[in-house]
Specification:
six-stranded parallel sheet, Quinone Oxidoreductase, Chain A, domain 1, 2 domains
Length: 319
């Protein structure tokens, strides 16, 4: 089968489309023929080997696995001996390392939402899980709360707007001029154009801030909180050896000070949360935003585009 590989860390130029072995199917796993995958920030961080924790997990001098991609949607090709919830031919979505390939094998797969296309389903796992867990689990989101979302037009951000609205929140979305109408169209009650206004200088206060963009110091973003509000730090952009890890560490230190909660956060993919997201999608409350699609052979261009930090919603790889 064909898959995207990278023998060394570096720019998208290190990526190769090569023949690799078909993965084995363990007893509790399924083999999925990939029809679509989507790009996440973790892909380009892994490709470049930055920040430092990436290298600790993936290999200090060169990548151990040398494969990219996590989000998957496709057709079940084979099932393990103990699998009962899926059958050959089922349309599924889920998460597995090495998703930029023709076939993947793993456990975290469930039936695709019936009302979404394969491409739309492929955008959900990492980004929507991050938004869901950040708002619901870390932020303790409740109906009627005022929520501010930075980076609201990106992959995680668009899902955060949709999920916050599904939970009954009043949502203010921070994005650039060209994306204001898009975030309003998916449910944002109010918008802030960061190219014209510094949201941290506003007099408004929020019960929950989901900081995805990481474009301001945490001390400034914290000022946007109500007296007992919560700031959830998903991480921040950066290509250095430490960023965005330094931002998460700073949030951890600040969380010990004051009545406001400052919570650093990294998502953990679970099948249970995929079920929640599937139900939200089938109820019409979760409709992914897709910016562009690229064929598997142009994965380098797709990642190069996502690295610009200007993608609207998600970027999809079709196989």
């Amino acid at each position: 089968m064909k898959a995207i590989t990278f023998p060394r860390y570096g720019s998208p130029d290190v990526l190769r489309l090569e023949e690799v072995a078909v993965p084995d199917v363990a007893g509790d796993a399924v083999l999925v023929r990939v029809r679509a995958a989507s790009v996440n920030a973790t892909d380009w961080h892994s490709m470049r080997g930055k920040p430092i924790p990436i290298r600790i997990g993936d290999g200090l001098r060169r990548p151990k696995l040398g494969r990219l991609g996590v989000d998957v949607a496709g057709l079940v090709e084979a099932v393990g001996s103990t699998v009962t919830h899926l059958r050959v031919g089922d349309e599924v979505f889920g998460a597995r390392n090495g998703a930029f390939a023709e076939l993947v094998s793993g456990k975290n797969f469930i039936h695709k939402p019936a009302n979404l296309s394969i491409e739309e389903a492929a955008t959900i796992p990492v980004a929507a899980t991050t938004a869901l867990q950040g708002l619901r689990d870390k932020g303790g989101l409740r109906s009627g709360q005022r929520v501010l979302i930075t980076g609201a037009s990106g992959g995680v951000g668009t899902f955060a707007v949709l999920i916050a609205k599904a939970f009954g929140a009043h949502v203010t979305a921070v994005c650039s001029t060209g994306n204001l109408e898009m975030v309003r169209s998916i449910g944002a009650d109010a918008t802030i154009d960061y190219t014209r206004n510094d949201f941290t200088r506003s007099s408004e206060r929020y019960d929950l801030v989901l900081d995805i963009a990481g474009s301001h110091p945490l001390t400034a973003t914290r000022r946007m909180l109500a007296s007992r509000g919560t700031l959830v730090v998903v991480g921040g952009p950066g290509s250095g050896w430490i960023a965005p890890t330094d931002r998460l560490l700073a949030a951890l230190v600040m969380s010990k000070l004051g009545r406001q909660r400052i919570i650093p956060f990294l998502a953990q993919l679970t099948r249970d949360d995929l079920v929640v997201l599937k139900e939200l999608a089938e109820s019409g409350k979760l409709r992914p935003v897709i910016d562009r699609t690229y064929p598997l052979s142009e994965t380098a261009d797709a990642i190069r585009y996502v690295e610009t930090m200007h993608a609207r919603g998600k970027v999809v790889i079709t196989v």
